[in-house]
Amino acid sequence: MTFGSFLPLWFFQLCERTWPGSWVRNSQWLFAIVETFHIMALGMLIGTLVIVDLRLLGWGMRRQSAAQLANYLAPWTLFGVGMMVVTGVPMFMSEAIRLAGSGPFFYKMTLLFLALTLHFTLHKKAIASNSGEVSGFSRLAASLSLICWLGVALAGRAIAFI
Amino acid sequence: MPHLFSFVQWLNNTRASVYLRQGDWTFPIIETVHILGLGFSVGIIMWLDLRLLGMAMQDAPVSDVIEQLEPWAIGGFLVMIATGLLLVVSEPMKCYTAVAFRIKLVLLVFAGLNVLYFHRRVINDLDGWDGQVPRRAKMVGALSLILWLGIVIAGRWTAYF
């Protein structure tokens, strides 16, 4: 499955013609610079998710409640996602036509949607209801969250190779 | 450095190197695991550093944060080292010629010394900190953040140029 199979070609052509698209594509350095920021944001984002999820799984940070940790880290999770989007969109625009036919890109976006949906529903609920004890529910929410985000990263990396 | 260069040439011709370089999937798989290891360990290291700097998770004692997160950071780091060595084996020539890679190695040594200093000289009176993180520990946190940012940038640059 690809985005090109259901979205019209002109949309991707339009993306490539926008100034961020053509700017990143025509510059020798810009893609590399933007991608470096994308990866730094990835590190930060994964850090915030892993710390909270380790707590929900009961594998780390057990002396703090998940809510306490999330209190500090959730704004940074959003900041990380924001930075990923801000750096990701110009990269997409610079090669939109190629990505229209990319399977990994489609799966990355699908998994991202799923991961974000989980983050604001099940995951949020697990954090709120986690009073200190690790429950089956918090374990499930953390595992699903980690698997989805891992999938986003894997599919993201695959875009460059496939 | 003639000895280093002949070693690199030798490494480049080993069966392992040729195998890793010629496989369609070997490099992408190793690199993907390397980046996941990066996200995992740099992600955690960054939050340890921010805690030392008093910029995150302030109501969790520093000792708690270090004790509970450091093993995971080390685990991620080992994944990065293992896959990083394989990446070097797969393209030794590129690593030898890339300036960014040399910078990366120097920064890694500094990051290692920074951790060593932290464990030898800073951490021993951890219990006496009582919410007030000493300046030396803050220095370690700030240095670590800067060094790891540099390592990520230099690493990404090795792939490109």
Helices and strands in order, then pairings?
The complex is a heterodimer of chains A (162) and B (161).
Chain A: H1 9-17, H2 19-26, H3 30-57, H4 66-94, H5 96-100, H6 103-120, H7 122-129, H8 136-161
Helix pairs in contact in A: 2-4, 3-4, 3-8, 6-7, 6-8, 7-8
Chain B: H1 2-13, H2 15-22, H3 26-52, H4 62-90, H5 92-97, H6 99-122, H7 135-160
Give an account of the 3D structure:
The complex is a heterodimer of chains A (162) and B (161). Chain A has 162 residues and is mainly α. Chain A has helices spanning 9-17, 19-26, 30-57, 66-94, 96-100, 103-120, 122-129, 136-161. Chain A has one domain (10-161). Chain A has eight helices and no strands. Helix content of chain B is 82%, strand content 0%. In chain B, helix 2 crosses helix 4. With 161 residues, chain B is mainly alpha-helical. Chain B contains seven helices and no strands. The model of chain B has no long low-confidence stretch (mean pLDDT 90). The interface between A and B is medium-sized, with 31 and 32 residues.
Features of this protein?
heterodimer; A: 162 residues; mainly alpha; B: 161 residues; 82% helix
Low-pLDDT regions of chain B: none
Average pLDDT, all residues of chain A: 92
Structural class of chain A: mainly alpha
String of helices and strands of chain B: HHHHHHH
Number of DSSP strand runs of chain B:
0
Show the largest interface.
Answer: A-B, 31 and 32 residues
pLDDT < 50 runs, ≥5 residues of chain A: none
Q: What is the count of distinct domains of chain A? A: 1
How many helices of chain A? The count is 8
Oligomer: heterodimer
Short précis:
The complex is a heterodimer of chains A (162) and B (161). Chain A is mainly α and 162 residues long. Chain A has 8 helices and no strands.
